[in-house]
Amino acid sequence: MPRSAQDAERIRERDARIVRSAREIAESEGWPAVTVRRLADAVGVSQPILYRHFPGGRDDIVARVVVDGYAELAEAMDVAADGADRLRALVSAYLDFARTHPAVYEAMASARSSVVFAAEETPAVLRRGFRLLEDAVGGADARERAVRAELLWSMLHGVSQLDAHGRLDAELDEVRGAAMVALFERRG
Fold it and tell me: Which residues bind DNA (predicted)?
């Protein structure tokens, strides 16, 4: 427990440095290179100090990367356009985020973590990102909006993964994005 506001700030800064280091190592060398020992060395602390910040070790750090990544993605998707323009901008922002932050996106999409989806305990930032998808695709009722948002998210994830592994023709990116928008243009 921090003894002062200064101690609390120092703890927040160290937490942020640990998470930032995990992201940097993962982006340059992949997630297998992200170990507690490596992070402790990178941040300049002992492993016990790192475990004080993140008692679950690497899993807690990856969970933080996942939540932070979804916060950044939600911010990128929160565009000020309307209708098809909003959907087009959201699709573009999602795909750009996945392309620009491949290791973070990998953790968000497939890392084993304690982050819970589609449940009451789902972090608010994840619910916010999903609401952005729901608002962009619309639907006649909450159930239809949820299904349409899940399908768009699934498609965006699939395209992101195929793109990350060089399976898609980059010259078709714009056409592909327009086709997704046409499939999910807002209803209801």
Answer: 35-54
Give 114-150 pLDDT, tens digit per residue: 888 888 889 999 999 999 999 999 999 999 999 999 9
- 74 shares its domain with 154: yes
Q: Which domain holds residue 39?
A: 1-55
Buried-state track 35-73, b at ≥16 Cβ within 10 A, e below 16: ebeebbebbebeeeebeebbeeebebbbbbbbbbbbbbb
Cross-strand bridge partners of residue 187: 138
CA angle (170, 132, 136) in 5-degree steps: 70
CATH number of the domain residue 30 falls in: 1.10.10.60
Number of domains in the chain: 2
4, 62, 73, 142, 165 from 91: Cα distances, Å: 44, 25, 11, 21, 19
In one-letter notation, the amino acid at residue 25 is I
Task: Kindly tell me the burial class for residue 94, based on how many C-beta atoms sit within 10 Å of its own C-beta (0-12, 13-18, 19 or more).
Answer: buried
Mean pLDDT in residue range 62-91: 89
Q: Provide the pLDDT for residue 131.
A: 94
The answer on 72 and 48 residing in a single domain is no
User: Residue 157's domain is classified under what CATH number?
Assistant: 1.10.357.10
Global confidence as pTM: 0.89
